[in-house]
Amino acid sequence: MNVLKDILDNVSDSVIIIDPSGKILLYNQQALRLHQAVSEKQLKSGESFVEIVREERRKTVIEVLKSVKRQKKTIKIFAEFKGPSGDNIFLEVSYVPVLGSKKELRYINVISQDMTSRKSLEKKVKQVTADVNNVLDQAHAFIFSVDTQGYVVDWNNHCAQLTGYSKS
Questions:
Q1: Which of 30, 38, 46, 142 has the fewest beta carbons closer than 10 A?
Q2: Nearest 5°: CA angle at 72, between 108 and 12?
Q3: How much is the pLDDT for 40?
């Protein structure tokens, strides 16, 4: 199992392997780091996975695990947490069933990706887009756009003032 642990520790995503009853069998260093950032409880082998997740997330985790066991299909969820310093941490968590030769559930791999930097970038892009749209909308110039068929699809406030027609 040491070889498997070494391999898992070199994976950039958080990986926790649990048995069908929900007991933690194995996890990598990334899982330990990420878990410490989002939970007060300690991550360790032999513990119930449900018991180490935050209280407010338990019901969701229980339902997801039931669905994975029943459907034997991967389920992906997104979660937001407050980190130790009060910052938001965004995770994409995939619950991946591992089936045996007779299609029986052998393990569930809980794979988490830290999406915080991506969410931060998305937020900045939305803000910049809103700022640009606001500047264009408030500009003291006649700014409008048309589609490929020549229909007006957007125009700014100055167009509305000059023509007397609102955007709608």
A1: 46
A2: 35
A3: 80
